[in-house]
Amino acid sequence: MLAELLTALAALVAAGAVYASAAARVVKQYERGVVFRLGRVTGDARGPGFTMVTPFVDRMHKVNMQVVTMPIPAQEGITRDNVTVRVDAVVYFRVVDPTSALVTVEDYKFAVSQMAQTSLRSIIGKSDLDDLLSSREKLNQGLELMIDSPAIGWGVQIDRVEIKDVSLPDTMKRSMARQAEADRERRARIINADAELQASKKLAEAAQQMEATPSALQLRLLQTIVAVAAEKNSTLVLPFPVELLRFLERAQDGGHDGGSNDGQDQPRHIHLERTPEHPADA
Questions:
Q1: Could you tell me the pTM of the whole model?
Q2: In contact, 243 and 270? CB cutoff 8 Å
């Protein structure tokens, strides 16, 4: 009698162990467990940790709640200004409602991927080439809204969409390079013209100042001579100002009037080259 009781107890313990092992489930921290009892969702999603289900009646499906990084294959399209481009992107999303992600859509990852591809092609057709190259932040926001609208009903939230690369034909690349070169040349010419204008204004002011003070012209000439003479291998071509000739002429005329001549030769060739105003000296 006692042996039969012990045998029944051992069988009961073994059955309990089998039942516990079949009913025990462990949900990880980044997962949620959705329980289907005879094909129908039972209760809310199970949180992380140890949980129990009814064996042979309940089935638990675990849903990953982490952020999923999904690359969007390169899509080829024609922009609004008739340029053929290839654009690829990446979408970041996560599940916020595990029950809807399992019940509403068959495969939420595949659905998000297809929606992202169609939205990317739509964005390409609505945008100009300049927008694809320079206004990516605005296009990213538009893509995020287009994908997030249907994804909300699937229990999925789109965190961010980024356009990775825009591939252009080689002919378009060469055309853009020529355009950029022409634009830089135009700006260089404008800068040079502006510099010439500023320099001409400064030269005009300097000319007015020198006109008021004639000696400043002579000082400037001497400074130029000193600067050029520093180069030993240079040839100096010096313009002879007319004012200096007139000064020498007046000095020579003053020497004749005073009657002082110490026998030194005067620069009569300068006087002769200027004007024949004094025939006697000639």
A1: 0.60
A2: no
Neighbours of 9 (CB within 10 A): 10
Q: What is the pLDDT of residue 67?
A: 93
Strand 40-41 vs strand 156-167: parallel, antiparallel, or unpaired?
unpaired
Contacts of 2-8 with C-beta under 8 Å, sequence gap 24+, read: none
Whole-angstrom Cα distance, residue 35 to residue 59? 6
Tokens of 88: 């690829």
| Residues in CB range of 144: below 8 A, 6 or more apart | 158, 160, 161
Residue 278 half-sphere exposure toward CB, CA atoms < 13 A: 16
Q: What is the mean pLDDT of residues 123-132?
A: 87
Alpha helices in the chain (DSSP H): 2-23, 98-103, 108-126, 129-134, 136-151, 170-212, 214-229, 242-258, 268-274
Beta bridge partners of 165: 88
Q: What's the pLDDT at 93?
A: 94
CA–CA dist 265, 282 (Å, integer): 14
Q: How many CB atoms lie within 10 A of CB 45?
A: 21
Q: Distance from CA of residue 157 to its chain's centroid? A: 28
- Give the three-class secondary structure for 47: coil
pLDDT digits over 192-207, tens only?
999 999 999 988 888 8
